[in-house]
Specification:
Arc Repressor Mutant, subunit A; 2 domains; elongated
């Protein structure tokens, strides 16, 4: 009996989330109410409140689930490997962009509506690459301070992701993977005045 209940809860939450995604594509976030979400999901407000105390809690759960899925995707190539070469297309890069592409509607919805989306995504990347994975670096001109490098690398990668989201995913995940790999292996050789 519990399995049926769990499936029902999952289905209800998925319906509410899909309704919100559809609504955010049509209305500004501040105009979307619990009643609108429930009605669009073909449910009543009481059903919404049986699972969430308010819209903010609903959005927090959506963001948490999305980021946990991204964490699992990034770490999955290391289930059977200790080290990965990043001079070519890295499995972590593949996982990041494939996961985002697969979940692009909820990424877009939360990017445009959740005040802490960027902060939480940055914290996730920083946590993964400081607690779970270590980026091996080498410099011919000085010592790399890892913590500072981690902020640089995180913000560069996220900047590329944000640009992709803002452009409403006009490029394929494969293109974005390739570009990140190229950027990560590109050496700036100088600046020239235009």
């Amino acid at each position: 009996m519990k399995i049926k209940l769990d499936r029902r809860v999952k289905r209800t939450k998925r319906s509410l989330r899909n309704a919100y995604i559809d609504l955010i594509e049509q209305f500004p976030e501040h105009e979307i109410t619990v009643s609108m979400i429930a009605q669009y999901a073909d449910l009543n407000r009481a059903t919404f409140y049986a699972h969430y105390s308010n819209k903010e809690e609903f959005l927090e759960e959506a963001l948490y689930d999305l980021l946990e899925g991204l964490r699992e995707a990034i770490l999955s190539p290391f289930e059977h490997k200790q080290r990965i070469n990043v001079n070519t297309l890295a499995p972590t890069t593949i996982q990041i962009f494939e996961y985002i592409e697969k979940n692009k509607r909820i990424f877009y919805a939360l990017y445009t509506s959740h005040a802490d989306f960027k902060k939480c995504l940055e914290e996730l990347f920083h946590q993964i690459f400081s607690e779970d994975l270590f980026i091996e670096v080498q410099s011919t001109i000085g010592t790399v301070h890892y913590e500072t490098f981690l902020h640089y690398q995180t913000n560069a990668t996220l900047g590329l992701i944000y640009s992709w989201i803002q452009g409403e995913f006009q490029y394929s995940a494969e293109f974005m993977m390739e570009q990140l790999t190229i950027f990560s292996n590109t050496q700036v050789i100088g600046l020239k005045k235009l």
